[in-house]
Amino acid sequence: GRYGCAIVMDVKTGFVKAMVNLQKSDDGKYYESYNHAIGTREVPGSTFKLAALMAALEDGKISLTDTVNAVGKYTFFNQSLTDAKEWGYGKITIKEAFEVSSNVISKVIFNAYKAQPERFLERIEQFGLMDKTSVSLSGEREPYFPKPGTPEWWGGSLAWLSIGYESQLTPLQLLAFYNAVANNGTYVQPQFVTQVRSGTKVIETFEPVILREKICSDQTLQAMRSCLEGVMINGTGKNLKSTYFTKAGKTGTAQIANKNLGYGKKGEKKHIASFAGYFPADEPIYSCIVVIAAPTDDIYGASVSGTVFSAIANKV
Question: What is the CA radius of gyration of the chain?
Fold first, then answer.
């Protein structure tokens, strides 16, 4: 079915300022009937490319100025990944590949880690993406990642993982990671309550909780933040410009063909359009994620979720 969710978080503290989930009901109306933000796991899609390139930068396997040939189709063991632009983007830098969201990133990560896929997953772990955020609301799902040596893992898993397929995260888990990037690498726990009061008396006060002091080096952080700003200036988010301040973020469009993976009825396709980012780009105050899932294929992360993100940012 169709649903959408949006979350806005205070970058420094992790306190969630707003969280909304709407789902289309049988009567054609939308209701806040289920908390998708913490209870629904989906493939993150291209928003995950942030984590993939961060891993490779941390391991010194790439430089953002390296040139790649984005030919439009990337094959691993007879399975292919394609770009949104059929003939690809030609010779571009890795930074440009991120900005236009080319799946040539799958080649980059596959070549960098094929001899040691565990190393790649260790980095993803380091960024906090393999743990629950342990929010105080019940129903948070555990992130899912296939592991080498298990039946879910195959030769091309690394390539698929790097562009946000085969793994599953909740919107809040993905936002907490983007928030850490905005927060100079400090991963704070998402929280909903600042104080519990009885009348005028404060019973309990909640302070920000730091789950990871530093998810990566400053160098990696600066490099990826410039990429996220580049998305908005030169890349898939360039039509989302705001007149008041700069934004940073990443679009994602994922298609799920529901073979028999428990994603829905046989033959049903679901597209997930997402946008994760923060604003203002240079001194972030808020981070925000928008995830919209629908059975139509004319939904793209930039035009659908990016538009919502921009509207929220400008209003805030």
Answer: 19
Tokens of 239: 């039509």
Which residues have CB under 8 Å from 245's CB, separation 6+? 279, 280, 281, 313
Rounded distance between C-alpha atoms, residue 263 and residue 21, angstroms: 19
Write out residues in the chain with pLDDT < 50, as ranges: 259-266
What span, in angstroms and rounded, lies between the C-alpha atoms of 59 and 234? 27
């929280």: which residue's tokens?
191
Please check whether residue 178 is in contact with residue 124, taking contact to mean a CB–CB distance below 8 angstroms: no
Is the distance from CB of 195 to CB of 37 less than 8 angstroms?
no
Q: What are phi and psi of 232, to 5 degrees?
A: -80, -25
Q: What is the pTM of this model?
A: 0.94
- DSSP assignment of 120-164: HHHHHHHTTTTS----SSTTPPPPB---TTSTT--TTHHHHHHTT
Tokens describing residue 306? 């990016």
